[in-house]
Amino acid sequence: MRGFRPGLTARRLFTLRVPPRPPRPPGARLSSGLGAAAGALEQAMDELLRRAVPARPVYELREKTPAPAEGQCADFVNFYGGLTEVAERAELLGRLAQGFGVDHSQVAEQSAGVLQLRQQQREAAVLLLAEDRLRYALVPRYRGLFHHISKLDGGVRFLVQLRADLLQAQTLKLVEGPHVREMDGVLKSMLSEWFSSGFLNLERVTWHSPCEVLQKISESEAVHPVKNWMDIKRRVGPYRRCYFFSHCSTPEDPLVVLHVALTKDITSNIQAIVKECPPSETEDKNKIVAAIFYSISLTQQGLQGVELGTFLIKRVIKELQKEFPDLGTFSSLSPIPGFTKWLLGLLSSQKDHGRSQLFTDSESKEIAEIIGGPINETLKVFLSSHEWVKSEKLVRMLRVPLMRLCAWYLYGEKHRGYALNPVANFHLQNGAVMWRINWMADVSLRGITGSCGLMVNYRYYLEERATHSTAYLGSKYIKASEQVLSLVSQFQKNSKL
After folding, report:
1. How would you classify the pairing of strands 240-247 and 290-298?
2. 85 Cβ partners below 8 Å, 6+ apart?
3. β-bridge pairing 418-419 and 414-415
4. Where are any strands of DSSP class E within 183-288?
5. CA angle in degrees (0–180, nearest 5) for 415-461-312
6. Given CB 3.0 to 4.6 Å as the disulfide criterion, which of 58, 209, 254, 274 pairs with 244?
7. CA geometry: angle at 194 spanning 213 and 425, to 5°?
8. What is the pTM of this model?
9. Which of 392, 410, 398, 390 is nearest to 360 (CA)?
């Protein structure tokens, strides 16, 4: 396939004469320029979109109309690449979503036709044709642009980055509204097709892998950052496995990375995995009883929501079973992002009257004596810093209450009926069991500030995984161990929320 040819850029389009532009759709206000310069850029965007977004053929000619010239799509890519400001890219994406979506008048017309045919009880062939016309009308115009860009050399990679920009723009509230969310959903759906399991290659990383691959793996590690080359050497050495998915169009380019520790039991402490050296340079299969998934990182933010992590865990389990036929224990050792923030929010909402609704009266008294002040406000200050772990008394005193609070956060706090915590939601969707909550399992700065040092094991019982996944996705039922349920029960009994 051809690459992007030199095409129009934002600077070149500034000189084009264009008719007065239509009323500006809602979107981000450009911050990169004022007055005439900003107006010229907006006009350039309108002109680009009118030329680059393919017109929709009439239904009868949908399969006979030739594809747009390759240069039209390449012009869009080159123009977009020339926009260096986040707000400028957001503006262009907002205009694309608002002005080149679904033709609602066509949808209304085709919908009325389908309803009329149903009332007339016409033959099936006529009704199916009308329904196909309606489906065709429901396809937004910008989907055609994305489709043709994907055929360019490097086009899919460009669209992944474009979606990452779109997600960032929504987070920053530079673009908002139903049209933008709809375009994001359309692009996500297309990427899910292009990055389905059949197009993905599973690759294992070892110390003998190319330096470029090791460098990318190190840089992409988002859960437990890699400090140096010796660190990455441990993580791909004996009793460790590292796998990643690459796309067939970009081999050796990691999309999602999974780190695994091969251990004698289900590990409860991350330092034992990422800091301690393996027992020997030669693996003893008799010492390998459990496979612990301790880090999974998505390297491309534009692929958020595409089920790469789910596919990767399933494939890695199969690979490990081939290598170790007797291996039957699979579990994660997962962080609990958001727990400290949630806990601080609860403490902020409590009114200090010498007691707390989060702790029993005896706990409140002992904690107040240790921290030397009103429990809610003072404890909030302590937990906002990692310094509190230096107090053995406070660490020992907080173990019981924070364990039950964490259990409730993971098990009881919900978003639309599913686990609020994103890591919990991911593993529960995959059919794992919320198996064990671990105290002081991550004493790194990130672990203490993010989750008060707590981590959780999500255990995968292979024979029951599909049943658990169905129960969670269909009935929003969380399968949890006796330890977790006991902690939840303690929370319900002792907390006064």
Report:
1. unpaired
2. 30, 31, 32
3. antiparallel
4. 200-205, 240-247, 256-263
5. 70
6. 254
7. 80
8. 0.86
9. 398
Structure tokens at 150: 């994907």
Structure tokens at 487: 């902690």
Residue reference for tokens 């979109």: 49
How far apart, in whole angstroms, are the C-alpha atoms of residue 72 and residue 144? Answer: 12
Strands (E), 248-362: 256-263, 290-298, 329-332
Place of tokens 């050495």: 237
Q: What residue type is 83 in one-letter code?
A: L
Residues near 491 by beta carbon (within 8 Å), at least 6 away in sequence: 404, 405, 407, 408, 412
Cβ neighbour number for residue 381 with a 10 Å cutoff: 14
Q: Are 174 and 92 in contact (CB under 8 A)?
A: no
Q: Collapsing DSSP states into helix, strand and coil, what is residue 144?
A: helix
**CA–CA distance, 109 with 111 (Å, rounded to integer):** 5
Catalytic residue among 297, 331, 334, 451: 334
Roughly how many angstroms between the first and final C-alpha of the chain, as a whole number?
62
Q: Which of 224, 259, 386, 427 is catalytic?
A: 427
Structure-block tokens of residue 387: 């310094």
Q: How far apart are CA 416 and CA 432, in angstroms?
A: 20
Cβ atoms of residues 331 and 290 within 8 Å: yes
Mark whether 427 is an active-site residue. yes
Residue 260's CB is within 10 A of a number of other CB atoms, namely: 25
Alpha helix segments (H runs only) across 324-391: 339-349, 361-371, 375-383
pLDDT tens, residue order, the chain (497 aa): 434 433 433 333 333 333 333 444 444 455 444 567 778 999 999 999 999 999 889 999 888 888 777 888 999 999 999 999 999 999 999 999 999 999 999 999 999 999 999 888 888 999 999 999 999 999 999 999 999 999 999 999 999 999 999 999 999 999 999 999 999 999 999 999 999 989 999 999 999 999 999 999 999 998 999 999 999 999 999 999 999 999 987 888 999 999 999 999 999 999 999 987 776 778 999 999 999 999 999 999 999 999 999 999 999 999 999 999 999 999 999 999 999 999 999 999 886 555 578 999 899 999 999 999 888 889 999 999 888 999 999 999 999 999 999 999 999 999 999 999 999 999 999 999 999 999 999 999 999 999 999 999 999 999 999 999 999 999 999 999 999 999 999 999 988 76
